[in-house]
Each structure stands twice: as structure tokens, then as C-alpha cells.
């Protein structure tokens, strides 16, 4: 009998029910807190935990927590939907496909060079746009290209999956993981970007080397040297003037965004506005009429409805704990096992816990909403920075996405490539282990450099 893991929605609802019942059993308690006058951050005072009178939640409160969670996370939910809509418009212009097509034409005869180039492009999509399932329409074309060049199907899938995965893990401008986790942790949005770029380079370089070596060892030598078979190069899209305009608008938008974040304290509202303007502008210069821009915006936003709504439901998890005054009790008991251990061990523990949670909550934004309220407090009390806790979350959320059978887009990618999960896992497991070791080293480094701002 196979173990069937419920969907993230169902699992989160089960968690809400369990926590609701726990309010009748688990002692209520609270920490004293104080606000740092310099940063405005609300910190827990160590060793201040005390039990208080129980406040068990009713059935009505159990369901009330869900809409309240959505209301409390409304800014993040709207941000995700607006950003998804904007990316939907950009995708509809065909610019991404055209960029890939231009590279294919340019590197005929130098096919192996396409592996690092395409992986860099997909990694930037993961690091900046949080691209994961959005890349699914591109798999058939890249797999067909890879096999026509003499590479196997694993290489075709890996170019996109590991490319976007490496970028997603670092997420130096990823609004759906880094942005949300930092927002919940009360950190400046996209702060600590230099360290994340280092992480990006580490994971991307190891991935490129891994895929390149595999392709080099398993390619059909007779099909290389420019002899592309079973692939109609004339059907590959080319870069038009409209596509180039879309690229210019996108680059200008991100320069503006980075300047705004660095110098003008851009937050979720300003970042959402920038993405919205970028999407509409790309649609206009990309030759889409107003009706098409509108419809593609709706399609893009609807494709992220699952992730957007799960943020609100995940927020309900913390709402239930607040209703029953058991959040601080849970934090206190989570802290006990790591008391007396070095902060580096505490940070490692966070990474491991997030990796386990990601098996059950595959949405990065949903996982951030569910876990960061607890993790930020654990960070305060265990002597590591909240920025390090966010990094541990990113690694825990991102690494297992290249191997977890509960990750929807991962399973879909394997299905498109007609690759069995066991076959893929056997191949990618060494890289997964390498990522975990490198991630642990980077977390330890982040502790020693007091990775902040706080």
C-alpha cells in the first residue's frame, strides 16, 4: 500500500485542526518582548517565558483563522498575483523563447557551450522571477534540442530544472521566497543581496559542471559537430525588434527596482507597482493589444492562485497559535533541544527542519508564511541573525525541489521528459548532497560574519 501525501492545502488544514485541538492540551505561555528603538523590530527577551491562562479556540475560531490569515497576508497575496500577472504578459510576448532560439542559431557547431549559457539564463529567471512551474512550457523545446544535439533527455531536463533550481535557492531578487521571508522576519526587502549572489554563483557553478560532465560523457559523438538531427532550426523563434524592446524595458525596470530598494526604501507596495508597470510596458512594446495584455495578465495571475492562497492559509497556522497563546510555548520547546549548542548547530537545525517541512509544503511562499514567524524568534534566541534564518529557509526550501516527489512542477518536468523519478534521483543525488554540504558551509560562514543587517 502506497503512502499518499495530501495536497498542501489539505495538509495545512490538518495542521490547523491539530493546533486547534492542541490549544486544549498544550500550556499557554508567552515571552516578554521589547522594541528596538533604532530598527523598530520587536524582539523576544531571552529567558522571559512564562505560562499563562489557557485560551482554547472554538470551532468557529478555527475557521475564522483562515480568512483572518488571508487578510493579514493580503499585501503578500496581492503582491504575488500582480507579479505573476506581469510575468504572464512578458511570457506572452515570446521574448523568452526568442532568446533561446537566437542562442541555438548562434552556437550551432559549439553545442556544448549552450549548456552553461542556457543554465545561466534559466538560473537568473529562478533568482529574479522565482521561475519554477512557469518554465514548464519550455521543457519540450529544450529537451528536443538536447536530444537532437546528441545529449540524453536527462541533460535536457537538467538544463532547465537545475538552472532554475540553482537560481531559486539563492533567490537574491526572488519576491516569492526571499521577499516574503524577509518581510515576515521584518528585514529590509532583498537586504543581504551580496551574500546571496555568492550563494548563487556557488550553486550555479556546481550545477553547470555537473550537467556538462554528464552531457560530455553520455553524448552521441556522431551527432555533434553541428549535425543537428530531428530538430527544425527554422521553427525556432528569432529575436524581433519587439522582443528587444521587451528586454530593454525589463532591464530598465530591474535597475529602477534595485535603485529603489537600495536608496528609497522600496517595500512590497513599491515593488508590486514596479512589476505591474513593467508587465504592462512590456506588453505594449511587445506588440500586444490592450485586450491581450489584460487576458495574459489574468492568466499569469491565475497560474499563481494556488501559491497565493496557500500563503493566507499558511498564515492561519500562526493565527491559530496566537488565538490559543501556544506559539511562544512551541518556540520555547523548539528552543530547548538546541540550548547549550553552538549557534551554528542551531542554524543547521533550522536548515534541516525547513528541508523536512518542504516535503509537505512544496510552495516556497507558503512555507515562508508558515515557518518564518517561528524561525525568526528562534534566531533571536539562539544567537544567530534573522538574515541567517532566512538563508536557512531558502536552502531548506530550495534544495529538495530537485528531488522531492511532492513538488508538483518537479514531477511535471520529469513527466515531460519521460524520466522515472528513481532514474532521476539516482543521477542527481550526488549533486543534491554537494548542495547540502555547500549550503551548510555557507550557513556557518553567515554566522561568523554576522550576516545581517540583523
Automatic annotation (TrEMBL):
Annotated transmembrane regions: 7-26, 76-101, 113-129, 158-177, 189-212, 246-267, 273-291, 303-326, 427-449
Main localisation: membrane
Give one Pfam family. DcuC
Q: Where in the cell is it found?
A: Cell membrane
Cellular component aspect of the GO annotation? plasma membrane
**Topological relation to the membrane, as annotated:** Multi-pass membrane protein
What keywords is this UniProt entry annotated with?
Cell membrane, Membrane, Transmembrane, Transmembrane helix
Reply yes or no: does the keyword ATP-binding apply.
no
Q: State what protein this is by name.
A: Uncharacterized membrane protein YfcC, ion transporter superfamily
Please report the organism this UniProt entry assigns to the protein. Anaerovirgula multivorans
List the taxonomic lineage: Bacteria, Bacillati, Bacillota, Clostridia, Peptostreptococcales
Amino acid at each position: 500500500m502506497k503512502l499518499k501525501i495530501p495536497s498542501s492545502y489539505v495538509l495545512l488544514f490538518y495542521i490547523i485542526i491539530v493546533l486547534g485541538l492542541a490549544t486544549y492540551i498544550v500550556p499557554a505561555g508567552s515571552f516578554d518582548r521589547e522594541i528596538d528603538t533604532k530598527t523598530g523590530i520587536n524582539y523576544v527577551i531571552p529567558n522571559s517565558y512564562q505560562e499563562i491562562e489557557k485560551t482554547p479556540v472554538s470551532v468557529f475560531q478555527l475557521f475564522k483563522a483562515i480568512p483572518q490569515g488571508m487578510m493579514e497576508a493580503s499585501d503578500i497575496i496581492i503582491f504575488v498575483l500582480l507579479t505573476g500577472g506581469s510575468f504572464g504578459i512578458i511570457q506572452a510576448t515570446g521574448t523568452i523563447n526568442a532568446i533561446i532560439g537566437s542562442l541555438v542559431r548562434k552556437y550551432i557547431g559549439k553545442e556544448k557551450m549552450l549548456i552553461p549559457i542556457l543554465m545561466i539564463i534559466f538560473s537568473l529567471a529562478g533568482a529574479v522571477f522565482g521561475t519554477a512551474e512557469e518554465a514548464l512550457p519550455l521543457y519540450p523545446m529544450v529537451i528536443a534540442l538536447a536530444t537532437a544535439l546528441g545529449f540524453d533527455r536527462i541533460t535536457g531536463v537538467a538544463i532547465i530544472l537545475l538552472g532554475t533550481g540553482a537560481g531559486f535557492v539563492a533567490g537574491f531578487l526572488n519576491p516569492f521566497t526571499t521577499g516574503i521571508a524577509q518581510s515576515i522576519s521584518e528585514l529590509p526587502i532583498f537586504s543581504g543581496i551580496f551574500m546571496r549572489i555568492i550563494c548563487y554563483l556557488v550553486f550555479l557553478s556546481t550545477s553547470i559542471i555537473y550537467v556538462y560532465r554528464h552531457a560530455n560523457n553520455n553524448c552521441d559523438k556522431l551527432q555533434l559537430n553541428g549535425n543537428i538531427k530531428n530538430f527544425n532550426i527554422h521553427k525556432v523563434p528569432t529575436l524581433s525588434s519587439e522582443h528587444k524592446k521587451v528586454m530593454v524595458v525589463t532591464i530598465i525596470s530591474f535597475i529602477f527596482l534595485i535603485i529603489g530598494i537600495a536608496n528609497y526604501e522600496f517595500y512590497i507596495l513599491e515593488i508590486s507597482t514596479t512589476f505591474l508597470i513593467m508587465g504592462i510596458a512590456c506588453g505594449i512594446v511587445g506588440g500586444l493589444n490592450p485586450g491581450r495584455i489584460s487576458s495574459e495578465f489574468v492568466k499569469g495571475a491565475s497560474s499563481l492562485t494556488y501559491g497565493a492562497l496557500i500563503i493566507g492559509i499558511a498564515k492561519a497556522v500562526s493565527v491559530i497559535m496566537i488565538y490559543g497563546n501556544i506559539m511562544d510555548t512551541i518556540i520555547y520547546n523548539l528552543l530547548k533541544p538546541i540550548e547549550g549548542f553552538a549557534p551554528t548547530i542551531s542554524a543547521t537545525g533550522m536548515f534541516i527542519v525547513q528541508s523536512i517541512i518542504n516535503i509537505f509544503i512544496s510552495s516556497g511562499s507558503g512555507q515562508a508564511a508558515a515557518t518564518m514567524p517561528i524561525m525568526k524568534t528562534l534566531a533571536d534566541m539562539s544567537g544567530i541573525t534573522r538574515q541567517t534564518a532566512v538563508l536557512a529557509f531558502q536552502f531548506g526550501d530550495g534544495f529538495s525541489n530537485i528531488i522531492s516527489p511532492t513538488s508538483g512542477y518537479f514531477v511535471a518536468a520529469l513527466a515531460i521528459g519521460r524520466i522515472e523519478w528513481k532514474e532521476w534521483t539516482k543521477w542527481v543525488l550526488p549533486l543534491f548532497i554537494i548542495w547540502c554540504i555547500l549550503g551548510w558551509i555557507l550557513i556557518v560562514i553567515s554566522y561568523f560574519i554576522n550576516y545581517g543587517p540583523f
